[in-house]
């Protein structure tokens, strides 16, 4: 039995992890129950008593499903965004199973800290998720994690100010109320550039293609942004001013992600509206804002001593049942197709908006290494427009400089 | 004539004093401004990280209460006790190291004295966190990066390098006349007795200074704690906890509590300083009497 599970693994997992799995397999063969130790890292939120200890509950359910193992779980705290840093610092002494954001994929693979999923596990993951979600975790044809939620930003608005028709166009929104946008945050600002045909690394995976944030199409956007910034009904959302504005009523719409859902609900109550991104009018043409989108996934450490159990646990934590519990206990928006089509969960406006944004008004956030050069120049563009140093007169010049900076490795 | 002169000199002094005091007043306001703001924020009832008014609209103690009651996500009391324990232990160790090394370098003459001082000078030029990854792997090899041993690891990290920062204490010991030591030797004191019974009582200000600085560095350190604690949330120190409160998931609901935490961490330092500052008075006055 053990031999077979190891051979199934052969199909997919990395050699390093394999050796480890093979070794444990031999070491404890012959006993009725294999005792293993699995270290699991997740954000604090998933382990909090207030949220019913989702992770602990799931891990115990997993142990019940696998009586052949006597599992000791060790829990640690690492949120998805910073897990890459912690794991790649010392992969050997890190968790066997952890959660990470897909934009840190290359950091982890470079540190040999992420196992590939193959064979029956890969098939199982592929059957549960949409193509777009899987793409966010696939590099060079290899799948690196079990997705459990999508990660992007969308729009919150005040229903007493806007109708569902209004929120389809940013220009209408600016006429009828006050809109706030994180103008100086480079996770958000590219939405306008990408909307007008600017591209990053070809389709997002071709590092040699470079960034195309130059030319007339980009200059037009810069000009549009300068006008937008000076619009009396526009506010820059910085350091939490957007959510504060929603609270006191001075702002009617803002852009953020699911992590702000509870605060917005508290601020707006029944008037809380959630929608995918609107269009904006550039030189008389309607353009769609496009956000960066990614996913959060459960990864397995190739240095684990118990590869089979670790992979099984990762798949279990990303299964529809676990995602449903995750949604009910912690409010984590599910991404597997079974649940997004679920009438009850799918009707939640936040889930709807996030999934609609993910599928229709976003591009996959590139995770090639050179993407790291793309953040500061865009942020500087936003700041330059805010402080008035970038004007219509030098817009072309400044846009070209931004494009150059995004394409260069220099600091 | 003379009366006029005095009058105008008085007047000039009055004008000078006024200008100086106004400038000092403005500087004081600027200097105190951020601290006042943090304290005000810690009592603010409105949620969120951004407010449009300087003074809170309404005040509350809930932010402090939240730190100690809402412990499922960020366990502030535990972090506080962790940090306090680490800081007290490393403070005692580091103070002893610094004072002992300074005393030796000031009073004893041995072959490695000069090379040691040069080496310490050069090593002191490099920032400590340059070695943090190496330190982490050494601690890992010793098996000290898991569970409660992390506390021991942090204590060692914070106190281990203390002997390199002897310069100020050594400079102070140099100013105590050798004659005092010689008198003690004539009376039959050993070196250890001179150190504890003569030098230390004469050096209260520098002892206080050393205690304060060696308490503050582990109390406020972020970078080593972050590298060594990694995912072990039960070992987190306050600095990591406060930093986590500002992450995008928590900032909106935890910001005012973050300010409350910032106020609370200043309490032990302030208490230590207030208690010890009375020893700051002239430490050498005792020696002249004898």
TrEMBL record, chain B:
One of its GO terms (molecular function) is ABC-type maltose transporter activity. It comes from the Bacteria. Its main location: membrane. InterPro entries: BP-dep_ABC_trans_perm, MetI-like, MetI-like_sf. GO terms for cellular component: plasma membrane. Residues 80-276 form the ABC transmembrane type-1 domain. Keywords: Cell membrane, Membrane, Sugar transport, Transmembrane, Transmembrane helix, Transport. The keyword Membrane applies. The keyword Cell membrane applies. It is a multi-pass membrane protein. It is found in: Cell membrane. The chain crosses the membrane at residues 20-40, 84-105, 117-138, 254-276. GO terms for biological process: maltodextrin transmembrane transport. Coiled coil: none annotated. Pfam families: BPD_transp_1 (PF00528). SUPFAM superfamilies: MetI-like (SSF161098). Belongs to the binding-protein-dependent transport system permease family. MalFG subfamily. This is Sugar ABC transporter permease.
């Amino acid at each position: 039995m053990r031999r077979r599970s190891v051979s199934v693994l052969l199909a997919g997992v990395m050699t390093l992890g394999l050796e480890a799995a093979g070794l444990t397999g031999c070491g404890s063969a012959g006993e009725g129950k294999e005792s293993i130790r699995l270290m699991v890292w997740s954000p604090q939120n998933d382990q909090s008593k207030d949220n019913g200890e989702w992770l602990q509950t799931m891990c115990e359910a997993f142990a019940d499903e696998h009586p052949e193992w006597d599992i000791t779980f060790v829990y640690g705290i690492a949120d998805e965004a910073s897990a890459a840093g912690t794991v790649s610092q010392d992969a050997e002494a890190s968790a066997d199973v952890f959660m990470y954001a897909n934009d840190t994929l290359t950091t982890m693979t470079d540190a040999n800290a992420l196992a590939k999923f193959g064979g029956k596990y890969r098939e199982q993951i592929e059957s549960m998720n949409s193509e777009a979600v899987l793409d966010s975790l696939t590099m060079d044809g290899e799948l690196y994690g079990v997705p459990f939620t999508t990660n992007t930003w969308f729009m919150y608005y005040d229903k007493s100010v806007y109708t569902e028709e209004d929120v389809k166009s940013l220009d209408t929104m600016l006429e009828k109320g006050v809109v706030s946008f994180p103008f100086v945050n480079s996770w958000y600002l590219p939405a306008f550039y990408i909307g007008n045909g600017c591209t990053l690394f070809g389709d997002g995976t071709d590092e040699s293609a470079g960034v195309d944030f130059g030319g007339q199409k980009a200059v037009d956007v810069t000009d549009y942004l300068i006008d937008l910034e000076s619009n009396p009904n526009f506010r820059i959302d910085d350091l939490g001013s957007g959510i504060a504005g929603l609270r006191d009523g001075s702002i009617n719409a803002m852009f953020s992600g699911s992590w702000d859902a509870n605060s917005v609900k508290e601020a707006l109550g029944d008037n809380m509206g959630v929608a995918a991104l609107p269009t904006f009018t550039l030189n008389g043409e309607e353009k769609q804002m496009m956000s960066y989108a990614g996913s959060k996934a459960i990864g397995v450490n190739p240095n684990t001593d118990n590869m089979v159990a670790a992979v099984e646990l990762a798949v279990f934590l990303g299964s529809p049942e676990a995602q449903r519990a995750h949604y009910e206990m912690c409010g984590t928006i599910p991404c597997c197709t079974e649940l997004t089509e679920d009438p009850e969960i799918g009707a939640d406006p936040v889930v709807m908006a996030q999934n609609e944004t993910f599928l229709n008004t976003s591009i996959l956030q590139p995770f090639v290494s050179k993407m790291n050069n793309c953040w500061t120049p865009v942020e500087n563009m936003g700041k330059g427009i805010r402080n008035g140093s970038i004007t219509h007169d030098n817009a072309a010049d400044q846009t070209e400089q931004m494009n150059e900076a995004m394409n260069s490795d220099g600091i | 004539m003379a009366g006029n002169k005095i009058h105008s000199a008085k007047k000039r002094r009055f004008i000078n004093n006024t200008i100086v005091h106004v400038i000092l007043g403005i500087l004081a306001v600027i200097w105190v401004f951020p601290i006042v703001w943090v304290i005000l924020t810690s009592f603010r009832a409105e949620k969120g990280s951004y407010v449009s008014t300087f003074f809170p609209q309404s005040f509350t103690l809930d932010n402090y209460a939240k730190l100690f009651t809402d412990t499922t996500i960020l366990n502030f009391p535990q972090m506080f006790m962790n940090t306090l324990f680490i800081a007290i232990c490393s403070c005692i160790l580091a103070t002893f190291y610094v004072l002992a090394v300074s005393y030796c370098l000031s009073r004893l003459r041995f072959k490695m004295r000069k090379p040691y001082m040069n080496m310490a000078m050069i090593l002191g030029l490099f920032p400590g966190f340059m070695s943090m990854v190496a330190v982490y792997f050494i601690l890992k090899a010793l098996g000290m990066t898991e569970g409660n041993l992390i506390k021991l690891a942090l204590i060692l990290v914070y106190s281990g390098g203390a002997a390199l920062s002897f310069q100020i204490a050594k400079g102070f010991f140099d100013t105590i006349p050798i004659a005092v030591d010689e008198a003690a030797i004539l009376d039959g004191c050993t070196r250890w007795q001179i150190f504890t019974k003569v030098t230390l009582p004469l050096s209260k200000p520098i002892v206080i200074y050393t205690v304060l600085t060696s308490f503050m560095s582990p109390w406020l350190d972020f970078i080593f704690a972050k590298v060594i604690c990694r995912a072990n949330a039960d070992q987190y120190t306050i600095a990591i906890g406060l930093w986590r409160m500002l992450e995008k998931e928590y900032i909106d609901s935890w910001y005012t509590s973050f300010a409350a935490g910032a106020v609370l961490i200043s309490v032990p330092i302030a208490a230590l300083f207030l208690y010890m500052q009375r020893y700051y008075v002239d430490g050498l006055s005792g020696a002249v009497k004898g």
